[in-house]
Amino acid sequence: ETGVTQTPRHLVMGMTNKKSLKCEQHLGHNAMYWYKQSAKKPLELMFVYNFKEQTENNSVPSRFSPECPNSSHLFLHLHTLQPEDSALYLCASSQVISGDRGRGQPQHFGDGTRLSIL
Amino acid sequence: QQQVKQSPQSLIVQKGGISIINCAYENTAFDYFPWYQQFPGKGPALLIAIRPDVSEKKEGRFTISFNKSAKQFSLHIMDSQPGDSATYFCAAKARPSGTYKYIFGTGTRLKVLA
Asked: Is the pLDDT of residue B2 over 90?
């Protein structure tokens, strides 16, 4: 497989369920990201992992819990979600190179998990 | 200051026409401006990107025009084709601050009529 793979592609869960989203990147990148995509809103960055260390948490509610066991895998653990959490959750990866001032290292996205909260 | 304003929200163009999507920003710390294309059921895919030290970049039918003084940049799709029908997002990245954070526009849904 190539690129960024997300599973499952679709997920329907109740508000009291616990589930996890998985992301795997096959690009050899060292940074991974979770985004939330809702209709008519900009992509919202949720979490950033750089060399397996979480470097950003954009005031995301604690019902979303990320995990990055290695530079190729990223998880988003979900529990007690709300209906407004229904959205497309996108994973991305990029190569962060020290000393290049961060220029020109594009983020590559997976196809997302479509999450519906009942 | 962290926003990127994108317009129009939707665009309909005849086949063979020129599609133009505009973005504006306020933060002068932004130093990388990619455009992403997203088809239904797919994630965004990098289309073309520009840095502020050039005023134009062209790749095939896609051109980014960049106006640093006006803090605006735009995507031009020449000879638009029905296969170009997708949602397009502009984005901007600030200079390193310990993160590699993109700020995205709200997207433009393009429909090219056959």
From this structure: no
